[in-house]
Specification:
binds NADPH dihydro-nicotinamide-adenine-dinucleotide phosphate, elongated, 309 residues, alpha/beta, 30% helix, seven-stranded parallel beta sheet
């Protein structure tokens, strides 16, 4: 029995040693040092390597090194029977809350518009809006959405959330399902998208959704790039339907140098850093879940393949 560690992100290569420290007594092999592939029973992975799964005949579980699992689910050779386990928070909730707070303050205090004014040498004061007057809509009220909601509530914002199933989060007015989407959007002056990428959510941030938001709303996407229809966003910003956007994830990453988003004065861009997986809590969570699996228990964060998250 051996665990294979595969990570396409160069910055996370040293994590094999953190994983080994969290799993004393386990043999950890770090890709590309696969050795005898028949020994591999668990895979800890971020990114994709074509044909990797079909090389692992005795695989029993796959652990995502992220909250999202779409990088695993889209592998064409992924075997049907193997459970996929994702990370739940693992140090990311706090970072998402910081990112969301920055967006909330920027929207509440007009900072992106003042940034554009500066470039135009325009002195144009705007009336003060207190946080209680701003409704923040969290699209995807899951593990990370819940942490974000709490911190925005503490700062005084009105918070509403949208999920697939009915959900109760203290202080947050919840909406759910397809029928709950439009009433939720109508109130979301700042929309923070924290959805996973699935067949149901792909392209959800499109012209129809933007049309349902209050005029001048700001949109934040920290979920996945393919949730967003990029041309629709540019149109909505250029027509003034939306006032600003803050984007951390893109259909193509790194965002190509000639992409129109780079030059847009109302778009803030960050390079998929809204919440970075933290090595120690992530590896500890993987170790705890592996122990659960070995005891015949259900791990925390198991991905429902039918739903895609
Ligand atoms: P969760 O699975 O805990 O939460 C997902 C939320 O989305 C849940 O509330 C779920 O509803 C809701 N949802 C999913 N599908 C639908 C649907 N069809 N209709 C309505 N609601 C839906 O995930 P996390 O909070 O842990 O992470 C969310 C995503 O954030 C990740 O999948 C990843 O893509 C992204 N991410 C991005 C990072 C970055 O740095 N940019 C870092 C970490 C994560 P329900 O509660 O009913 O299941
Ligand atoms: C994740 C991510 O899914 O970093 O954890 O995007």
């Amino acid at each position: 029995m051996a665990i294979l560690y595969f990570n396409s992100a160069r910055a996370r290569r040293h994590w094999a040693s953190v994983l080994a420290a969290a799993l004393p007594g386990e043999e950890i092999r770090s890709w590309p040092a696969l050795g005898n592939a028949a020994d591999i029973t668990e895979l800890v992975i971020w990114g994709q390597e074509p044909g990797l799964f079909e090389r692992l005949p005795n695989l029993q579980a796959v652990f995502s090194l992220g909250a999202g699992a779409n990088h695993i689910l889209t592998a064409p050779d992924l075997p049907d029977h193997v459970p996929i386990i994702r990370l739940s928070d693992a140090g990311m909730g706090r970072q998402m809350a910081e990112y969301a707070m920055y967006a909330a303050l920027a929207h509440q205090r007009g900072m992106i518009i003042y940034g554009e004014d500066k470039a135009m040498r325009r002195w144009s004061p705007r009336p003060y809006r207190p946080p209680e007057s701003l409704t923040v809509g969290i699209l995807g009220l899951g593990v990370l959405g819940g942490v974000v909601a709490e911190s925005l509530l503490t700062a005084g914002y009105r918070v509403i959330g949208w999920s697939r199933r009915h959900k109760t989060v203290s202080g947050v007015r919840g909406f759910h399902g397809v029928d709950g989407l439009t009433p939720f959007l109508c109130e979301s002056e700042l929309l923070i998208c924290m959805l996973p990428l699935t067949a149901d959510t792909r392209n959800i941030l499109n012209a129809d959704l933007f049309a349902a938001l209050p005029e001048g709303a700001m949109v934040v996407n920290v979920g996945r790039g393919d949730l967003l229809n990029e041309p629709d966003l540019l149109t909505a910003l250029n027509r003034g339907r939306l006032s600003a956007a803050m984007l951390d994830v893109f259909s193509e990453e790194p965002l190509p140098g000639d992409h129109p988003f780079w030059a847009h004065p109302r778009i803030v861009i960050t390079p998929h850093v809204a919440a970075e997986t933290q090595a120690e809590p992530a590896c500890q969570q993987i170790a705890d879940n592996l122990a659960r699996l070995r005891r015949g228990e259900t791990p925390i964060g198991i991905v429902d393949r039918r739903l895609g998250y």
